[in-house]
Specification:
Length: 145
């Protein structure tokens, strides 16, 4: 299943400047997801991170991966309309620099579901589309409330 940005806005509670999903290339609810994000050089964050040598912050790479996981969860009927809460990150690694003007894909795969507590754990990778290199990877833990 593919989703446009307008469809993403109907699912995620995030809005600019904290929305880091431009489109969903593929999603199989509670199984896997692939999202796309264009890193726009006009974003305010680049005025301070870092002047003269802008770099997409690692913490925002993690947020983009978490939002991909949110999509994977929130496309399941029983989680529609709930709020995804970022519960934790495990084994995060930053492998490549992400620069303004690049497009990245976030690939997520569910690894653990605790239905009783509504807590899910997914493994996610951020890939630089141009080179197909892994820029970041982490295990993302989300709780639905």
């Amino acid at each position: 299943m593919k989703l446009s940005k307008d469809e993403v806005l109907k699912i995620l509670p995030h809005r600019d400047p904290m929305l880091f999903v431009d489109e969903v290339v593929d999603v199989d609810p509670m199984m896997r997801v692939v999202t796309k994000l264009f890193i726009d050089e006009k974003w305010e964050i680049f005025k301070g991170h870092f002047p003269g040598d802008p770099v997409f912050p690692g913490v925002l790479s993690v947020e983009a991966m978490a939002q991909a996981v949110d999509i994977m969860i929130m496309t399941m009927d029983k989680y529609k309309g709930l709020t995804p809460l970022f519960m934790g990150i495990n084994d995060v690694r930053f492998r490549r620099r992400v620069d303004p003007g690049q497009t990245v894909s976030c690939h997520g795969e569910m690894v653990k579901v605790d239905d009783e507590r509504q807590i899910m754990t997914a493994r996610c990778r951020m890939i630089l589309d141009e080179t197909e290199e892994t820029a970041a990877e982490a295990e993302i833990v989300i709780a639905m409330r």
